[in-house]
Design brief:
The chain has two domains: 8-166, Rossmann fold (3-Layer(aba) Sandwich); 168-306 and 343-367, Response regulator (Rossmann fold, 3-Layer(aba) Sandwich), CATH 3.40.50.2300. Helix content is 36%, strand content 21%. The chain is built from eleven helices and 21 strands. The radius of gyration is 21 Å and the shape is globular. Belongs to the BMP lipoprotein family.
């Protein structure tokens, strides 16, 4: 899961990560020889840009590229750039934090022009590599580039490191409103993978949306697992322990919660398993559209989506065309960088008046009439 930052809690969290990784894996794919629609070979040049000479590379966090969440979304953006632009690509999958720097170094040895790190946990490795290799472009998904902690904590502006961050509180607000409107028990639940701003921002928006529903409808739907005011709640401690995610969900279901939003990447599959086994409740997925990215669409009420793949594609395209910028990309409802996914199998179960209210609220967030505010803002 994915991770945007402004506060020292991120740096402090990073310090507790161990460095006991396996040897990094790298899977390069070159695309030097393409064919056009007639079957004739081309040199990769399009509109005066020789994309085939550009190499875009990516390093996953410990969730891996098949996490059905933000690593997978980033990987899909990389592959889209390969297939549609004709750039060369290479990727390295991490199994633990100890792999991050090794994987970046491996890709550096493959002459990558742009190296993209997926997730806040790669902050230090991307930052240090960008400083040491000023002729290479870097990007970091879900996080600003930072260093230090406590009073020394600061957000950096490196000329060759671009943050790709997402204001998921806006889409989370819509999901919280929708979940409150669909809950039969009047009890929602959420929990995080790690105590990071990029996780808590989802939960902040989700709680605020629930409160807005209560205000609009005279209801008293409650939220287990998170308090925006105190910034405290339940966390797994990582993005890999699906059993703990399942246990947390089972406890919530036992307390009467009937809709759960796990902000924990692959750990969310533990939530899905608990809901399916007990035959009750539904899930709000995060990062990707869970109905499409998992095989468990039947329990997915909706998802809080980051358009990570498109931001990756756009960054690669700009860099290949010589217009790379280190200015942060911030995904919002207005620019389409974040969204609430369709209801899919729940479409016929969601009342028309709730759908109308959600459309109105979305417009009000975009116009600024409703301000979705959180200290975890990207």
């Amino acid at each position: 899961m994915k991770k945007s930052v402004l506060f020292s809690t991120m740096a402090a969290a990073a310090l507790v990560l161990s460095a006991c990784g396996q040897a990094p894996e790298s899977t390069p794919t070159a695309t030097n020889n393409k064919t056009d629609s007639t079957g004739e070979a081309t040199d990769g040049a399009k509109d005066g840009v020789d994309y085939a000479k550009f190499k875009a590379c990516m390093v996953s966090d410990e969730g891996g590229f098949d996490d059905r969440s933000f690593n997978q979304s980033g990987f899909e953006g990389l592959k889209k750039a390969e297939s549609e632009l004709g750039v060369q690509v290479a990727m390295a999958e991490s199994h633990s934090p100890g792999d991050f720097q090794q994987n970046i170094d491996s890709l550096m040895g493959q002459n990558c022009n742009l190296i993209i790190g997926v997730g806040f946990m790669l902050n230090d490795a991307i930052r240090d590599s960008a400083r040491a290799n000023e002729d290479v472009h870097f990007a970091l998904i879900d996080s600003r580039i930072t260093e230090g902690q406590g009073e020394d904590f600061k957000v950096l502006d490196l000329p060759n490191a671009k943050p790709l961050v997402f204001n998921t509180a806006e889409a989370g607000y819509l999901a919280g409103y929708a979940a409150a409107g669909m809950s039969e028990s009047g009890k929602l639940g959420t929990f995080g993978g790690m105590d990071l701003p990029s996780v808590k921002i989802f939960m902040d928006g989700f709680e605020d949306g629930m409160k807005k529903y209560n205000e609009d409808n005279g209801k008293s739907v409650t939220l287990a697992g998170w308090s925006k005011d105190s910034q405290t709640g339940q966390f797994v401690g990582n993005f890999s322990d699906t059993n703990k995610g399942k246990q947390i969900t089972e406890n919530m279901l036992a307390q009467g919660v009937d809709i759960v939003m796990p902000v924990a990447g692959p750990v969310g599959s533990g939530t899905v398993a608990a809901v399916k086994e007990q035959g009750k409740g539904s899930v709000v997925w995060v990062d990707s559209d869970g109905f499409e990215s998992t095989s468990d669409g039947a329990v997915m009420l909706t998802s809080v989506v980051k358009e990570i793949g498109q931001s990756v594609f756009d960054t690669i395209k700009a860099a290949a065309e010589g217009s790379y910028s280190s200015e942060a990309y911030v995904g919002t409802l207005e620019n389409g960088g974040v969204a609430m996914a369709p209801f899919h199998d729940f479409e016929d179960k969601v009342p028309a008046e709730l759908k109308d209210a959600l459309e109105k609220i979305k417009d009000q967030i975009i116009s600024g009439e409703i301000k979705v505010e959180t200290e975890n803002q990207p």
